[in-house]
Amino acid sequence: MVGRDCERTEQLRIKLKENGHTPSERSVSVFMSKKKKQEKNIFDPEHMTQEELLKFEIAEELGLKERVLSGGWKALTSKESGRIGGLMTKRKRQLREESLQ
Q1: Stretch 25-46: mean pLDDT, rounded?
Q2: Beta-carbon contacts of residue 61 (< 8 Å; ≥ 6 apart)
Q3: CA-based Rg of the chain, rounded to a whole angstrom?
């Protein structure tokens, strides 16, 4: 992963130089961190982990399914996200206790 990041950084520097810009190390890293955040926030219902499936299931139970599908997780308020997180914790605890019995 580090090698790929270095390669992407170098490609970005070359592209900026071609356009007449002289990028600093800081400007390149800031640009890349924004791109990584964008990639992370993309909602992909086809490739979800177990935890993401649980999260989506709880969002569906709370009536937030359509908002998540249309705008991703970032479309939710902090209150709604906190509610989902709290219910996920509660559900995980229940599942863990059931598996121990």
Answers
A1: 56
A2: 87
A3: 20
